[in-house]
Each structure stands twice: as structure tokens, then as C-alpha cells.
Design a protein that fits this description.
- By secondary structure, the chain is of the alpha/beta class.
- Helix content is 37%, strand content 20%.
- Strands 2-10-6-7-8-4-5 form a seven-stranded mixed sheet.
- Helix 13 (338-345) links the parallel strand 16 and strand 17.
- Helix 6 (175-181) packs across helix 8 and helix 12 (309-324) crosses helix 13.
- It is elongated and about 70 Å long.
- It starts with a helix and ends with a helix.
Length: 364
């Protein structure tokens, strides 16, 4: 907010709401290193202390979720198979060893804990007190979760947009209704990749990105873009290719996570992503100069239901003319951002300059 007020930059703000669907290990006095073939127990006994091959979990309902034969992943580096269970313990066999850490997240492959559709009250209070532009909700599995959060925000007098994070198989089953209900979508590839087969993640990324463009909803792609730059100052060629592909798919935003939150080279990571994305955008502009109509991302005969057809036609026509005439910019006057979003949906070559009457509309 201070940056927006004191500088020429316009930056939207977002609070990532904590989710009760994230289950974690307990605290270790001495973090164990698990080896393949060892037995490790996850428990809800709530005892004062446990042996080194037993850990408490943060959610009692974990016992009902985990079944014999399930694959359990801990902190992305340890994998367990459930061998047996009773009313308090889930006994597992280690199939991929590694170092455990206190409070590490636990994921049961292909399942959701569904602990609660509520979010911690403190997070909501922060979002409303700071009057942020967007709030993101983790582990969204249906449109009802989005509507419930929006209702809670409105009850608190907050008009923030809701960003639904897609990261479970059930969310993929309901993706059309979630996209329609949310104000924006974030493809959380890290958690999604542990919930479905990893080779399916790129396919779902492309499908969701295309669906969001068709519905006029912003789409953010998150996680593992420059994972090597957490520890090293230069990216791998595969990581740069990943950025190129997301830009080619016309995603609205690419999100860095660990690279900038706790990595050793946050500024270098940000610059590497910026350079790679700009290079791909320049290549797309060259294609637009060759065929200005074919370069538009969206089919011009497919309106989405919630928008008046006349507004969509104006936005489509403006995009075509701008590409044909190699316009330097497209100027849009908008009350709440709708017309600017319609023009942006076509991904024209020229930059879009949107004039809005309020700071709230401008920052969104």
C-alpha cells in the first residue's frame, strides 16, 4: 500500500490464508534419518514423548484418512507405505529414506484431509484490516468453499477477490465450477504434483490456463520454477524452458516461492525469471506481427456467459486493430476493471493502459 501511494508503481496485494487441511509432524528433540525398510509410526496418542521412530500428527482425523496401502509423502523427500493401522496409530514402511524435520507437512497421495472449510480467524482479520486486494485459499475442492470464504469476507466488510489454489484431485474434478466461482486461479504445482501422477501436472497446467482464459479469469502458475536457485546463483536450462512454456500458454502471472522466501539468491532468481519471460514475450510479438489475428489467444466467436456480448466484441475488435496496426498501446477506461480484463483476455501485442476511478479498481 505504501509503495502504491508513494511511487509510480501499481502493485496488488494478496494474503495467503492458512489452511486447516495441512497436517504436519510433531516436534523432534533430535530429528531422525529414516532408511529404506525401516518401520515408522504416525500417531494421535498425544503422549508426552515418543521413541525416535514415532511421531505425533497435528490432526486426529488423519487416522480415518490413511488406509493400508496408501503412499505417504513427508516434506517431498521421504515416502512411506501404510502397512497397518489401529484406532491411534498408522504403522508405515519406509520406501524412500531421508531426513525428517519438525513440523514437516504430511501428504497422503491422492487424498484430502478435508479437516474444515473454515480458515484461521487471525488470517481473515489480517486480510480485512489491511484491506488487501486478494486473498488466496488453499486446498479448494469445490465452488462452495470459494463462496463460503467470499461470504465471510463480505460479512467483515471486505471486498477482496478470492484466489482459489488448485492442488488436489477433487479440485480437478470440479475445475469448471471452481473457475467460475473464483476471481482468479492459482495452479499450485508443488502440492498438486504430490496428489496426482507427476507426468499429468503439465497437462493440467495447460488445460486450466486455457479454461481460465476462456472464462476471463486471471491464472497464476506457482512453484518450482527456479528451484535450483534456492542454493545456486544460476538456473538450469530445464527451468528456463519451464518459464518459456508458462508464458507461451499465456498465464497471467508466474509465482516464485522458496526461491525468494528463503533462497540464497532471491534477486537473481527474480531477474532470471524476468529475462526469460520477456524473451518469450518478444518472440510472441514477432508472431503477432506476421499474423495479427491468429496471434490472439482466444477464439473470437466464443463469449463467456457472464459478460455482455457487446463488451466482448469491443474488446476483441480493439485487440485485432491494435495487432494489425502495430499500436504502441491500448487505452481502456474502466469502472471496476471488467473491460480491461476483456481486452487482456485476448493477449494483444500492445501493452494495455487502464484508467480507473478508484485505487481499489486500479490495484486489482
Amino acid at each position: 500500500k505504501k509503495i502504491n501511494a508513494r511511487t509510480p508503481y501499481i502493485i496488488g496485494s494478496m494474503v495467503d490464508l492458512g489452511s486447516l487441511d495441512m497436517v504436519k509432524l510433531g516436534e523432534f528433540s533430535s530429528a531422525p534419518h529414516l532408511s529404506k525398510g525401516e518401520e515408522f509410526t504416525l500417531t494421535v496418542r498425544h503422549e508426552v514423548e515418543y521413541d525416535e521412530l514415532t511421531s505425533e500428527v497435528s490432526y486426529d482425523g488423519f487416522i480415518e484418512v490413511a488406509e493400508v496401502g496408501d503412499l505417504i509423502q513427508i516434506n517431498d523427500n521421504v515416502e512411506l507405505i501404510v502397512a497397518s493401522k489401529n484406532s491411534t496409530d498408522v504403522v508405515c514402511e519406509v520406501i524412500k529414506g531421508g531426513q525428517l524435520t519438525s513440523r514437516a507437512p504430511i501428504i497422503v497421495r491422492g487424498k484430502s484431509y478435508s479437516a474444515s472449510t473454515n480458515v484461521p480467524t487471525g488470517d481473515l482479520e489480517l486480510a480485512t484490516s489491511e484491506d488487501v486486494d486478494f486473498v488466496s485459499l488453499s486446498f479448494v475442492e469445490d465452488a462452495a468453499s470459494v463462496e463460503q470464504l467470499r461470504s465471510e469476507l463480505r460479512d467483515r466488510g471486505c471486498n477482496s477477490g478470492v484466489v482459489a489454489k488448485v492442488e488436489t484431485p477433487k479440485a480437478l474434478q470440479n475445475i469448471e465450477s471452481i473457475v467460475e466461482a473464483a476471481d482468479a486461479i492459482m495452479i499450485a504445482r508443488g502440492d498438486l504434483g504430490t496428489s496426482i501422477a507427476f507426468e499429468k501436472v503439465p497437462l493440467w497446467q495447460e488445460r486450466i490456463t486455457k479454461l481460465c482464459r476462456e472464462c476471463g479469469k486471471p491464472v497464476l502458475v506457482s512453484t518450482h520454477f527456479l528451484d535450483s536457485m534456492v542454493a545456486y546463483p544460476t538456473p538450469t536450462r530445464a527451468e528456463i524452458t519451464d518459464i518459456f512454456e508458462a508464458v507461451r500458454q499465456k498465464a497471467d502471472a508466474l509465482v516464485l516461492t522458496t526461491e525468494t522466501a528463503s533462497g540464497r539468491y532471491p534477486y537473481k532468481a527474480l531477474n532470471a525469471m524476468h529475462v526469460a519471460a520477456k524473451r518469450m514475450e518478444s518472440k510472441a510479438q514477432e508472431s503477432a506481427e506476421i499474423d495479427p489475428i491468429a496471434a490472439l489467444s482466444m477464439p473470437l466467436d466464443k463469449p463467456f456467459q457472464s459478460v455482455l456480448r457487446v463488451a466482448e466484441n469491443i474488446a476483441n475488435s480493439a485487440s485485432i486493430i491494435a495487432n494489425q496496426q502495430l499500436a504502441k498501446a491500448i487505452v481502456v477506461f474502466t469502472q471496476k476493471g471488467l473491460m480491461a480484463s476483456l481486452v487482456s483476455r485476448n493477449r494483444p501485442n500492445a501493452p494495455i493502459l487502464a484508467f480507473a476511478p478508484t485505487a481499489e479498481a486500479r490495484e486489482k
